[in-house]
Amino acid sequence: MQSIQVSAIRPLRVGGIYLPSNVLMAPLAGYTCYPFRMLAYELGAGLCFTEMCSANALKYKDRATNRLLVTTADEPVRAVQLLGGSPAVMERMAESAFLRDFDIIDINMGCPVPNVFKSGEGSALMQDPKRAAAIIHGCKRSGKVVTVKCRAGIREDALFAAEFARVCEDAGADMITVHGRSRSMMYDGEPHMEEIAHAKAAVSIPVIANGGIFSAEDAGRMMECTGADGIMVARYGLENPFIFSELTGKVCEKTAFQILTEQLELAARHYDETFVLGYMKKISAYMMKKRRGTKQYKERLYRSGSLAELREVIALIFADSPV
Ligand SMILES: Cc1cc2nc3c(=O)[nH]c(=O)nc-3n(C[C@H](O)[C@H](O)[C@H](O)COP(=O)(O)O)c2cc1C
Description:
The chain is an alpha/beta fold. Helices cover 42% and strands 16% of the residues.
């Protein structure tokens, strides 16, 4: 069964930047580092984002935050996600040398985490449209393409993504991604597709639908029910990165083992060993979720203390598998 209409998967233009597909990979803290983004692009994702980078942390030249900005000229489109609540700081960071290599700045207006919300950042910006508009406006002065990722609303009984999408468009945003859950829902429950559809109908910039896509069928349903210009896969992209080739038809003959081995080598070229170990353990754990008979290796995976040990355990888990 064709789970998603081929016509629904198409190239997309965002603020003048051509994306070969409208299947996007979400920003995911702790995961969407340079190697993972390169993998998603290779498999057919049209656009991938860094995880959220705090504008304040950048301002203070925090080393860990700087590491989130690793990219190279090989990355097809370079999109960074910024988190911040101060229009002045966001504008300064958007124009700063830290973001010199990036083509797109995505502004996080969806993070539900209490300490972020209390600081007036992430989803709190949806409650303060004036400040949200000032941030978009300020970031646009960098000359880069500016996109926004928000939620369907704050509380589930009062969704307002359509109204908020208009605010973003009027302020100059080039695209908006709506995570169909409210802030109060955090990461669980059915996304409100009708609210994404309202947002799509309210603006003429591209609207991307996100939330709860855990299969190709879910992707098809999301596209059909929202009429969105594209979809954004998040957690499922970690579990099954092949979803991008499945949806876009981009041919990939690599196995999970090959993919993980390449991830490890690429990560080792760009990050220190501690980071590589942490990242590879997390991504391997996600990818082994649905693999039978692999539970026995989980502890060994987490206990690996060197890249050599990690290579061995990854081979034990994945090397015999045909996919
Ligand atoms: C571990 C984790 C990290 C996340 N990090 C970010 C982030 O850095 N920026 C962001 O905008 N959203 C972030 N999100 C939200 C996702 O991008 C996405 O909107 C959410 O997971 C819903 O999609 P899904 O149901 O398909 O997973 C994160 C979610 C998770 C589970």
